[in-house]
Every structure is written in structure tokens, then in C-alpha cells.
Amino acid sequence: MRENLNKPEQSPAEIAREAFKRLAVRRIAPTPEAYREIYEEIAGTTAQPGAEQVLADFAAALVRGPKDIAALAAQLQLAAGKRDWQDCSRNLNRLIDLQLSRAAQPAPEPASGTFEALAPAVQETRQMQLLRDLLIRTLTLALVSMLRGAPRLAEEAESLAEAIRTAYTEQALNEIGGRLKQLCFKVGLKADDMAEEHELLLRLFQLLLENVSELLDDDSWLSGQIANVQDLLSGPISHAALLDAHRSLKEVIYKQGVLKHSLKEAKVTVKNMMMTFIDRLGAVAVSTGDFHKKIDNYQQKIAGARGMVELNHILDDMMRDTKAAQDEALRSRDEMIAARQEVQEAEARIQELESKLEQMSELVREDQLTGSLNRRGLDDVFEREMARSVRRESPLCVALLDLDDFKRLNDTYGHSAGDQALIHLVRVIKDTLRTMDVVARFGGEEFMIVLPDTPLPEAMQTVTRVQRELTKQIFMHENQRLLITFSAGVALRRPGEDQQSLTKRADEALYEAKRAGKNRVVAAQ
Ligand SMILES: Nc1nc2c(ncn2[C@@H]2O[C@H](COP(=O)(O)OP(=O)(O)OP(=O)(O)O)[C@@H](O)[C@H]2O)c(=O)[nH]1
Q: What DSSP character marks residue 118?
């Protein structure tokens, strides 16, 4: 059942927001087609022809015209198919030139049903009406939506479309031809500019990242984030991947920010403690120095004393000073002990905060929903386990799992039920595996299990055991027992085989398992 059937009507902004969310959740590349499809799905409306479709229809209609126009129309069709908008703009230009030069020639006998009927006498035939309509739609739908970053050109396209609606004289058409030509030329220039800006921005971003990495020193907790963004820039950049990286970086940066702040405070406390410590040491040194001076003084006084009364006075003074020096020494000792304890406590706190920061760094390697590793974490594990397997000459297996009919579960019980099912699956896998085995989210509803030191028959048994456990630890959704199953492909690493090839073989075996009827485990060739 579609989710929107039970919901109150949504505004276009809400639908758009929801559409973006679904694109991200379903990990679908955010192409205009995919976005439109999901938008229609949420809004419950039927699709209108898109801008590209209008352009394609326009070209297809012209292909049926006379030879020279048909040839240009075929090129336009080709360019539209390749989404090469510059080439489209060039071909539209040529079509306009051709059409204008034909319009300037004396009229041949109009051949009904062909493009010829359009040229000299500017009479509104059905073909011309169609052509006019297609041109207007090309301008208002295709061009305007492509020119969101250039409002002036978009305005010109709109105003040109408006003019075409009412241009019925040859002079008006000529004028429009000129404006159209100019617009095509400017659009071409703008496309070049935008491509260059995009390239420059990327280079700037890369430069910035390289510089930040250079400055990091031992700030290893930040390296995780930087590496994540660098990975993203090195591959093809998709909207979904950008959203993913943005979300995970934001969360990690926030948590790290909080921890870093506490760490800074703790370090300041230690510094203050040390200052107090040194102050006290200084005070002790000064007071004992004073005391020694006084003792020297008393020695001289004692030597020159002329009687018991005078000696008694001197002794009284000496006792008082000694007592004061003793008190001062005791006070300093207590303060020093307290300061030392505070330093130790602050040091322990710093250690705790630093280890938390490291854990934060690990988050970059973790899938937020299920708590299993993500692709990045999986790559690290692969590298480690492949090296270990070579060193110890021990077998290494991987299993690629894909939930069966997961789309139906999502469609019937909703996305959050689907999410809970993924969390449940990972919990069952973790409960069933050994501690040295690792599970990672490979994408959507696909998971990979890495089984170190495991020969193929044992790996098959392990995955079959997970299947059995999944039927025992049944998934509950709103008090309903839902049976979830998966298909899996298991592959044993061949000597010298890299991660990509091993994964590919596991994937082929998984495909076999799906083809053979699902809910089964197949060993790779
Ligand atoms: N709830 C939820 N659904 C997801 C997530 N990631 C991907 N999906 C959905 O998983 C579904 C996968 O559908 P399909 O690729 O057609 O696979 P299937 O329905 O399992 O069919 P088979 O694999 O042939 O058994 C899609 O509807 C995705 O939207 C997620 O994180 N949460």
C-alpha cells in the first residue's frame, strides 16, 4: 500500500522534501527522472512529459520533414539522446537559419502534410501549429528548467516563447529567429562557464582538503573525516553520495566539537594546577630562605646576649618564627598534595576524552542505521584480513547477503518497518557469528560478511546457520510476526585475488541464489 493514501494532502514543498528524503533513503541516484518519478509517486499524480521528452518529440516531428531539415533534426535527436545541450543548441540554431532562409525564398507549391507547407506563406497549418507549440514548450519547459542558474537567460526564453505565441507575420518570425539565435549563442557560452566554474570549485575544494591534511599532525580524529570527503571527490559525485557524506560528517563534527571543547577545558585545568604547584614551591623556598636568614640573625644575637632574660626573649622569638615556618611548610605540603590529586584527575579525564574522540572517528566507518560497518569500514577490514590470510596462509571467505522481497515489505508495512528489519537482521547476524567475523552494510538491503580463517564448506554452514536463526528469532512489527529471509553468495578468496574480484564472484553466486528461487545460499565458482 502506498504511504500517501493514509496521509492528509501535502504541500508541494513538503512533497519535494519527502521526495529528496526517499531518494536518499532508497539510495537512488538523484537524476531528474528519478526525482520526478518519486515526486509523482508521493503526490499521487500521473507524469507530465518532461523537458527532454518535449525536445525529443520536437526533433522526431521534424525528422518527417524535407531532407535538409530532416538531416538537422536527426542530429538534434542524437544530441538530445546524449543530453549534450550545447550540441542541441547548435542544431536548433542551424534549424532556425535554415527555416528563415526558406521563408525568404519564393513560395513553392505547398505539399500538404509536409514541412514545406510552413515556409513562405505564413499561414497557420496544422504542422506549423504543432511546430510552434513544440518550440514554445522547448523554450518554457526544457530551456527554462536548465537555466535556473541564469535568471536573465531564463527570462529571455520565457519572453521569446510569449512572442512566438503571437508571431504570425513574416517580419515577426524573422525577428524571433534573430532573438532565438542570440539566445542559443548565450546559452552555449553559459554552459561553458558553468562547466568551468564546477571544475574550478572542485579543484579549490581538493586543494583545501590537501592543506587541511598537511596541518593535522597528530589530530588523527580529524583525518577520518577528511579521508571520507576525499574519497567522495575522487569518485563520480552523485547527489545521494553528497547527502550521505554531509549527514555523517555533520554528526561526527558536532560530537567531536563537544568533546574537543571539554578536552580543552581539562587541559586548561591541568595548566592551572601546575601553576599553583609552582607558586607553592616558590612560597616554600622563600619562607624557608627567610627562616634561614632569621636563624643566622638569632645565632648572632645569641652569641652577643648578655644575660638569661635577653636569651629568653631571643628564644621566644625563635620559637614563634619556627612555629610560623612549620605552619607555612605544612600548609604548602597540603596544598601540593591537593594540587597533585587534581592534576591526576584532570589527566584521567583527558585520557577518557581522547579515547572518546577516537571512537567518534570510528563512527565514520559505521553504518548509522544498523551499527554494522559501512563500505569504508569494510575496505579497511578487507585490507587487514587479506594481509593476515596471506601471512598465516589461512583461508578467507566472504558472503554477500540480500534480503528477499524487501521492497514488498517496505511497500506493505512502511519504510520504518523496513529499517527495523535491517537492524534485526544485523543483530541476528552478530549474535550468530564468531567475534572475529565482521558484518558490513554493502548498500541498501545488501550486507557482506567477512569470515577470516574459514574454508568454503564452513562458510556455507555459517551463513545457513544465520538463515536458520532468522526463522527462529522472528522479526516482530506492531505485534505481527514477519518472516524475513535472504539469499546469499559465498566465495573463497583465491591466491592473489583482490577485493573487487572476490566481491564480484560472491555477487554472481548471490544472483544465482535469487534466480534459483531466493532464500538459499550458493557457493561461488
Ligand atoms: N526501509 C529501507 N528500505 C531500503 C533501504 N535501502 C534500500 N531500501 C529499499 O530496498 C528495496 C530493494 O528492492 P529491490 O532491489 O527491488 O529488491 P527486493 O524487493 O528485495 O527483491 P529481490 O532482491 O529480488 O528479492 C527498495 O525498495 C529500496 O527502496 C533502507 O535503508 N531502509
A: G
